[in-house]
UniProtKB/TrEMBL annotation:
Protein name: Exonuclease domain-containing protein
Coiled-coil residue spans: none
Keywords annotated in UniProt: Exonuclease, Hydrolase, Nuclease
Family annotation (PANTHER family): EXONUCLEASE, PUTATIVE (AFU_ORTHOLOGUE AFUA_7G00870)-RELATED, RNA EXONUCLEASE REXO1 / RECO3 FAMILY MEMBER-RELATED
Keyword Kinase: no
C-alpha cells in the first residue's frame, strides 16, 4: 500500500500492471462524452467563459507524439490547484502528477503564478503553467491516458488538448445515472466520492494536489478492479436521492 496524508492507497504489483492497463483502456471516454463534459479537444473558437479565464487558442497544445524509441508513462493521474484573482486570468498555484500504474510521484510542486506572488521562492517552485506543462511532457505523450477528477479543469489550466481520458467524476456520475442527467442531486465532488465510495476522508480546509491525484487514481483503480462495488454503491446512492 501507498501512504499519504494519513490515508492508504493501492499499490499495483508489477505483474498486475499489464492487465490493469488493458482494463483502463476500455474505460476511456468516447469523444461525445468528452464534448458533453466540455473538454477542449481542438483549436476551435473558445467559449466566452474560457476566454474570460484567460485562455487563448494560441496557447493550446497537444502532448508530444508517441515514438516507440521514447518510453513515456502509460497512464498518469494529475491534479492542479488553481485560483482566479479578481479581474485577472486563472492562475495555477500547485501541480501534482502520479504514475497511475506504479503510484510513483512524478511531480509535486508549488507553482509561481505569472502575477504577483508572495509565497514560496522561485527556486523551489515551477514558474507558471508553461513550466508545469513542460515538466508533465517529460512523462506523457499523446497515447498516455490521463486520469483525474473533473480533469477538464486541470487540462484547461495547463492549456493541454488531450483525448485519452478516464475521469473519476464521470465514472461515478455515469454509474449513478445512466445516461447522466442533471436531475439527480448527488454532488460528485472528489471528497464526497472518496468518502462515500471508498471510505477515504480527504483532508479538510486545504487542497493538496498530490492527495487529490492519488484520490482520483484510487477511485478509478477501484472501479476497474471491482466494478461490482461501483454498481452496488451507485444503486445505494441513487436510492437516497
Amino acid at each position: 500500500m501507498l501512504q499519504h496524508g494519513g490515508n492508504l492507497y493501492s499499490k499495483v504489483e508489477f505483474g498486475q500492471q499489464a492487465n490493469i492497463y488493458k482494463t483502463l483502456l476500455v474505460q476511456r471516454h468516447p469523444q461525445e462524452v468528452l464534448l458533453r463534459e466540455r473538454f477542449l479537444l481542438g483549436r476551435e473558437p473558445l467559449p466566452k467563459d474560457r476566454v474570460e479565464k484567460g485562455l487563448c487558442i494560441e496557447d493550446l497544445v497537444r502532448a508530444p507524439k508517441a515514438y516507440p524509441a521514447i518510453q513515456k508513462r502509460k497512464a498518469v493521474a494529475i491534479h492542479c490547484v488553481r485560483k482566479q484573482p479578481k479581474h485577472c486570468p486563472m492562475e495555477l498555484l500547485a501541480f501534482a502528477a502520479v504514475d497511475f500504474l506504479s503510484g510513483q510521484v512524478l511531480i509535486n510542486s508549488r507553482v509561481v503564478p505569472n502575477i504577483g506572488w508572495n509565497g514560496s521562492s522561485r527556486s523551489e517552485s515551477l514558474h507558471g503553467w508553461r513550466e508545469a506543462r513542460a515538466n508533465l511532457f517529460d512523462f506523457i505523450d499523446q497515447d498516455t491516458v490521463i486520469i483525474g477528477h473533473k480533469v477538464q479543469d486541470d487540462l484547461e489550466i495547463l492549456r493541454l488538448l488531450h483525448k485519452q481520458i478516464v475521469d473519476s467524476r464521470i465514472l461515478a456520475t455515469s454509474a449513478i445515472c445512466t445516461p447522466p442527467a442533471k436531475g439527480h442531486d448527488y454532488k460528485p465532488y472528489l471528497e464526497n466520492v472518496c468518502m462515500d465510495f471508498l471510505g477515504i476522508k480527504l483532508r479538510q480546509g486545504t487542497t493538496c494536489p498530490l492527495e487529490n491525484a492519488l484520490a482520483s487514481r484510487e477511485i478509478v483503480l477501484h472501479c476497474i478492479r471491482w466494478p461490482r462495488d461501483l454498481d452496488i454503491w451507485a444503486k445505494e446512492t441513487k436510492g437516497r436521492f
